[in-house]
Amino acid sequence: MEILVLNAGSSSQKSCLYSLKEDAIPLHPPAPLWEAQIDWTHHQGVAELKVKTINGVVFQEELNTQSRLETVEYMLQTLQQGETKVIDSLAEIDCVGHRVVHGGDKYHDSTLITKEVKDAIADFAKFAPVHNPANLEGIVAIEHILGEKVTQVAVFDTAFHAQMPEAAIVYPLPYEFYEHGIRRYGFHGISHQYVSQRAAQILDKDLTSLKLVTCHLGNGCSLAAVKNGYSIDTTMGFTPTAGLMMGTRSGDTDPGIIIDLLRRGHTGEQIDDIFNRRSGFLGLSGISADMRKIEEAIGQGNSRAKLAYDVYIHILRSFIGAMIATLEGVDAIVFTAGVGENAANVRADVCTSFAFLGLKIDEEKNNHRPVDRDISTPDSPIKVLVIHTQEDWAIAQECIRLTQLSTVPS
Ligand SMILES: Nc1ncnc2c1ncn2[C@@H]1O[C@H](COP(=O)(O)OP(=O)(O)O)[C@@H](O)[C@H]1O
Ligand SMILES: CC(=O)OP(=O)(O)O
Ligand SMILES: [Mg+2]
């Protein structure tokens, strides 16, 4: 079974092809035959494409394009053409799984993509304006290339948080807002769920006995409080703008700022741009949304980059504290995604705040490269794990599950 996965984030489009001998789900994530990534963060109008195959072939190209759709189509051609070719024809693909960021209050589980599902994804774009349109573009690109008959599955970032207790979901606004779907949804659920399952494996404990704070720190950032395998709280909210400070998003601020901006004549579009695209690391530092560039600038003595870093750590620590309180304790803190997996200083600066609970990390293990490891000292009562998020593999597993369900005779 050939499964193609498209994972569109705010700054990148990641994709991979899994080839499975049987329809059974293997115990460990298999290596994808082909992996590709489009990065839009470098220059306006330039997409950086990187492709890697299981045989070690690497292909890299800069594309001058404004069209995300065209770029995705170009990326998919590398599956069947040139040195990165791994299949004879795209028609060999049995199923395509998509990460879909916002499923609203309609989708609590993965689903086969139909016209109705596409309409709903388009409708929820008003709540996730950076993400849902990119997710939909991926679905449309596949239809262009493989025709509308190909099986496509939507796996929602909101689904893992759908069962959170009502007190964690409801905003203290007039009750009618809740009745109209204005509530906390939470995101990065595919990642939070995957890393909590992986954490249980690494700790050699049953997930149903664990209290975990999972920290997904990428371009978008969020935490989840995972108790006995269930998300019971998370930092993102109605939209992925909420919670922690991020690459270009503000995270939580005072709603009074929005009221003030409106009174001073700013439009909704302008406010959206400020909070989603011109805030966070980019807005504060004036340099970049990318943690690597921020670290470089700090090294060169840039004070705004240092301020941006300090605000990021301050907010991150306080939200981790809040998640520990919600859990009434914690067995492990898990770091994942681009920043969480790579930025050893972020992990160290966060963890020192919890030394009063006995938490201690081993500096050498923290600075060590390979992921999926415990970086705490043996006597630390709270474990600290670095886990490579495998959203793509989690999506592929949902493709297997759903295609099997849909072929079971009724
Ligand atoms: N070696 C590194 N050191 C520090 N930060 C890194 C490193 N590699 C990647 N990052 C950070 O990870 C971020 C992207 O994370 P990722 O999870 O890929 O984001 P997304 O899926 O939201 O596009 C980048 O913005 C960058 O700041
Ligand atoms: C939901 C979200 O913020 O996703 P990403 O981190 O991919 O931008
Ligand atoms: Mg991501």
From TrEMBL:
PROSITE patterns registered for this protein in UniProt: ACETATE_KINASE_1 (PS01075), ACETATE_KINASE_2 (PS01076)
Active site location: 157
Residues binding ATP, per UniProt: 14, 216-220, 290-292, 338-342
A GO term for molecular function: acetate kinase activity
Localisation per UniProt entry: Cytoplasm
A Pfam match: Acetate_kinase
Listed cofactors: Mg(2+); Mn(2+)
Superkingdom of the organism of origin: Bacteria
Protein keywords: ATP-binding, Cytoplasm, Kinase, Magnesium, Metal-binding, Nucleotide-binding, Transferase
Subunit and interaction comment: Homodimer.
HAMAP family from the UniProt entry: Acetate_kinase
Function: Catalyzes the formation of acetyl phosphate from acetate and ATP. Can also catalyze the reverse reaction.
Family: Belongs to the acetokinase family.
Protein known as: Acetate kinase
Protein species of origin: Floridaenema evergladense BLCC-F167
Gene transcribed to yield this protein: ackA
